[in-house]
Amino acid sequence: MSRPEAVVTLRRATAPDAASAADVWLRSFAAALPTVVSPRSGDEVRAHFREVVVPLRETWIAEAADGGGTVGVMVLNGSLLSQLYLDPDWRGRGIGDRFVALAKERSPEGLSLWTFQVNKPAHRFYERHGFVAVEYTDGSGNEEREPDVRYEWRP
C-alpha cells in the first residue's frame, strides 16, 4: 500500500536549520543503515552540519506543511549529491523524488553520488531515477570503512 504524497516545502537551509537537518540525518542513518557504524557522535554530526554543511554546501531541507518541522535534507557540493536523507516516518511519500528532480535541475550537466553497498533500497531508488553504478570500493576511502558504490546520472 503506497503512502499519500507528502505536503512539504523544499527550501535552502539557513543557519537555524542546521540542528533539525542534522537530527533528520541521524534518525535516517540509524534506520536505513543499522549495520553501519557512524564514526561521529550525534554531537559531532550536529557540529558538522552547523559549521560545514549548512554554511558551506548547497543544503536544502523539506519542511512539513503541517508544522511537523524538517523531514528531509539534501546536500549538493557542485555536481556531487553528497547527502539525501529523509525522516524514516516520511519515506515513500515523494520527497526523495522531489529532491532528486531539484538536484538534476541544479546540476543539469550531471550528478554523482556515493551510497553504501548494503543500502539496497537506495540503489533501487537512484537507479529508478536514471543513475548508473560506475564504481564499487572496499570502503577504505570513507569514514565508516564500509564498502560503497558510486553512481552517476548523465542527461
Shape: globular
Estimate the strand proportion. 25-35%
Q: Supply the helix-strand structural class.
A: alpha+beta
Number of helices: 4
Give the SSE string.
Answer: EHHEEEHEHEE
The total beta strand count reads 7
Major sheet description: 4 strands, antiparallel
Distance between the termini: 32 Å
Rg, nearest Å:
15 Å
* Unreliable parts: none
Helix content: 25-40%
Strand order, main sheet: write it out.
1-2-3-4
Q: Mean of residue pLDDT?
A: 93
What does this structure look like?
The structure is a single chain. This protein is an alpha+beta fold. Helix content is 33%, strand content 29%. Strands 1-2-3-4 form a four-stranded antiparallel sheet, with helices on both faces. It has a three-stranded antiparallel sheet with strand order 5-7-6, covered by helices on one side. Helix 1 (18-32) crosses helix 2 (42-56). The longest helix is centred in the first third of the chain and has 15 residues, at 18-32. The mean pLDDT is 93.
